[in-house]
Amino acid sequence: MKTNNTIFKLLAFAFIATIIFSCSKDDSISELPEIRSGFYILNEGGFNSNNASLDYYNFENASLTSSLFAQKNKRGLGDTGNDAQIYGSKMYIVVNASNTVEVINAKTALSIKQLDFKNNGKGRQPRYIVFNKNKAFVSSYDGTVAVIDTASLVIEKFITVGRNPEQMAIANNKIYVANSGGLDYPNYDKTVSVIDLNTLTEIKKIPVVINPGGVAATADGRIYVKSTGDYDKIMPSLTIIDSKTDEVKSTKEFSGSGMTIVEDKAYFLTSAGVKEYDLNTDAVTKDNFITDGTTYKIGYGLSYDKINQQLFVCDAQSYSGTGAILCFDKSGKLLYKVNTGVLPSKVIFLNK
């Protein structure tokens, strides 16, 4: 009997060990890096031309599907696609001149809901979108940031900020909103609104150089604000804000657009190439990240794939014809080029 009990215990132990080992293997599998299946391309289209479009590039067979949204939904995307982001299983596409936010299934591109951004019949002109927990936040030129519940897809409220807000960034439980005043030349705005994510209200405005448009956050909570200036006497600039104190740490003249932050580096589009900037030393490390002599005609957008460590330049080529996406590896060499619709402005990466 004792022998049988011993054998039974040994078998039970082996069985439990097998389960534990199997669970450990499953846990390790779940922690493997994400794998890309491809990427979407948001083509802004010409203003008032009603030709914004969404393309899709498939990594598996290196093929491009043009105007995928129109193919799937039997209608166009609208007028002036300004921003797009994937959050969870959905992709949100901000269509500026059509005054809509199109919510689609990220895998199939089928429309789930189209959100109307009009106030008593007047378009709010939505611009950019960011996310926090179960909320989406959309800046609009009417001086508001909309709060959208990502489950019900209902607009819950509008937060009043500055004039003609553009890009936003989140750090330390706050949203930083660049108030450009860009439609009010020469009386530009010169503030960054700070929204508290607990109360969903604007709690302060931080003065910066006039006409701020680009905002991005570092992992340690620094907020970088790119201002365009007045195109005359006030030069473009880069301002750094500490999100812990909301104090401006520094401001300096700085040219470049399409600011993209990746770990301890930032990248900017210039007419001569892609400028690389070290966030630890706050200095330009490379005037041109591109190392193989590849050039682009009109840099219109910049995206970085952290998983594959590739930089994507959106080249408008012209303001009316087709554009192109240029993909560079981490050494700055061109990997491939993809033709697009009119005014490609953003690459949105899709996981398997």
Automatic annotation (TrEMBL):
Coiled coil: none annotated. PROSITE patterns: PROKAR_LIPOPROTEIN. It comes from the Bacteria. Gene3D superfamilies: YVTN repeat-like/Quinoprotein amine dehydrogenase. InterPro entries: DUF5074, Haem_d1_sf, Host-pathogen_enzymatic-act, WD40/YVTN_repeat-like_dom_sf. This is Cell surface protein. The lineage of its organism: Bacteria, Pseudomonadati, Bacteroidota, Sphingobacteriia, Sphingobacteriales.
